[in-house]
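Q: A reviewer asked whether we had any structural model of the full assembly, not just the individual parts. We don't, so I'm hoping you can provide one. Inputs are below.
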Amino acid sequence: MSTVRCRIAPSPSGFLHIGTAKMALFNWLFARKTGGTFVLRLEDTDAERTDEAFVQAMCEGFTWLGVDWDEGPAFGDKAAVGELGPYRQSDRKSVHQDAGYKLLKTGHAYRCFCTKEELDAERESAQQEKRRKMKCPCRDLDSGEAENRKDEHHTVRFRVPEGHTEVVDLVQGTVRTDNRELDDFVILKPNGDPIFHLAVVVDDALMQITHVIRGDDHLTNAARHVLLFDALGYDRPQFAHLPMVLDEQGKKFSKRLHGANVLDWRDDGYLPEALINYVALLGWTPAEENRELFTIEELQQAFAPERWSKSAARFDRKKLDWLNGQHIRALNPTVLQGRLVAILEQAGFDVSQKDDAWFATLTEVCQEKLATLNQIIELSDYFFTDITTYEEKPVKKQWQVEGAAELMSQLIACMEGVDLWNRDTLKEAYHALGEATGTGLGKMVHPTRLALTGKSIGPGLFEIAELLGKEVSIARMQQGLAYINSL
RNA sequence: GGCCCCAUCGUCUAGGCUGGUCUAGGACACCGCCCUUUCACGGCGGCGACACGGGUUCAAAUCCCGUUGGGGCUACCA
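A: Here is a predicted structure for the entire assembly that you could use as a starting point for your response.
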């Protein structure tokens, strides 16, 4: 059993963002790869931004992706698991406070009685005068005096020591920071609530996290955290700061953008395994060169931090489409069928009029063509609804030509002559007609497709006819013929 | 503003640490051909990059410095 323990620590202030999902995924795959433990911790210390509805939404995202945790809070319909909880930061307040007071006692922290206004003013003038911010006078307050004033409105600040801090990072290398760049940051708010920095460090230490894998927006914070780990007497974990996910324009993936919510991808007909495969590739290169297609299990086998990328990557919808298509092709047909039926039903089609065998055939003829699950709708809507319009371009090309009506009549007669109706018998009949009249197959197929589907593209024509049945096919041919005559 | 991180085809990347084997490899996208009743799938081929400027060196995509561009931190948010 590996000793690796890593975690995802989202703050439930919205849906599951694609960037958070990447971090969760890297932690999860790393834990699975090493046989370690993956912990979910909810960072809900900022009560104003937290909402139970967000907690639910985030849970739904994880559930859809199939990213499961070994330890975590009660979440959605899952019960709390793990010995090192509670796993909601809001339930750990006293632990954080204890750590804060311990720091106060050991002189690693001090009470600061400055007002927010004073601080803001100093920050601004320092900025304007291009000088380093002055240290807070409270830093040097006599500890006895500070103790006497402890009922006054104040914060607790960490006393950043002189010198340098080195963060050893698995992906960024060693990053050295001059401690003067790190202001004495607040660790306890006036109401006693812990600030993020204190809370993460205490929780990571107490939950025995060995690998802190998170976004590189925390790289600078890591120096503060290392200082806190040291001051509290905890062992430092290993760090890995991963680049964030960029949108297609190369900008930070905004929350407002479609696709920022991982569930957008579900709704658009993407497979979770495809999204996972794609996001994994966005910042990790398989050791096995020139390989891109992975199942979840293969990913869990192959995922290694030595090949994590340092530079940020854009989200490329086209490549996701391709990968999604690959995963659809790899899907068990029965499983695919179930998903397609669900989508058609959701789209409002009456799926009860077709039986299981019919859907199996539909799935078979569509599996090779789909890039997303949702494309099944445009690929098969004409099986469920009557034809009311025809695409303009193919009408011009196939029907507004000399002899179109006559050809349609011949094709109808041909269809009527087919007794045992299936793709092969109809194809044979068309071939026979073609040979008898000297007409190429294409010349017959395209007008037929237009009559049967109203479109110029779709699955194989004879497969479509088989699925439609003889009666409906002929009726649609006659409807097409009538349309031609009305032109 | 200060500090930190990043920088190879349009996009994701290999190579960089251990300089020569890189006339820079793969994938997506795009274009062409083949397969084919359409589209897609599949096969074959094409287009296409070391951000810029200085060094170091016999030799630099690879090492160093600077510039530019992108991102982050600089909160009594996380």
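A: Points you may want to mention in the reply: The two ends of chain A are 76 Å apart (CA to CA). The longest helix of chain A spans residues 18-34.
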